[in-house]
Amino acid sequence: MRCLAVIPAPSKRPIRPIRLIRPIRPIRPIRPIRPIRPIRLILSVVSVLSVLSAPLHAQFDSGIPVGTKAPAIAINDLDGKPVDLAGYFGKKPVILEFWATWCPVCSGLLPKLEAVHAKYGDQVTIIGVNVTVNESRERVRRYLNRHRPPFIPLYDDTGVSSRAYDVPTTGFIVIVDAKGIVAYTGSGTDQDLVGEIGKLIGR
Questions:
Q1: How does pLDDT run across 175-189, given as a tens digit for each residue?
Q2: What is the SS3 assignment for 166?
Q3: I need a labelling partner for 145 at 20 to 30 A (CA). Which of 8, 88, 99, 154 fits?
Q4: What is the CATH topology of the domain spanning 38-52+70-201?
């Protein structure tokens, strides 16, 4: 008697294709965090606190002392060229505002500066020193083109003015008299800049 071998029928199920494993993407290197200059960090923190607090009045308790000789330092303009403040001191009163495009107090002071310019014109020099905290030259230029503030714009990317005038916050005002002496300092939107300049000019 012959034995017949039973051959199994081929499976009808299709063979699934083998999925290829996707290559692992290389990990991008983490960019190093740029260190924040101490003076810029201090100005940023104090500026936020000044916004949250009530406006300050008249003479300011911080910053360069009233009665001292104004530092005749050189500050860069928007093109990186140094501008010597000595060329402005000793001739007529000078208003220095330490400002930033994002500063609400600075925006509130803009009408005050415009009022000074409208009343006294070229009898007083107004200089706006951008403190360059969270700023760029392009952003400052856009702000100047949009708002047309009545001051000579400077861009203190070295922090020399913040150190020389002991600037405590943005929106800080320093008024220098015709003899080059600090006659007034203040901060806040309720400063009477027209009145302070009137005291120096005599009307």
A1: 999 999 999 999 999
A2: coil
A3: 88
A4: Glutaredoxin (3.40.30)
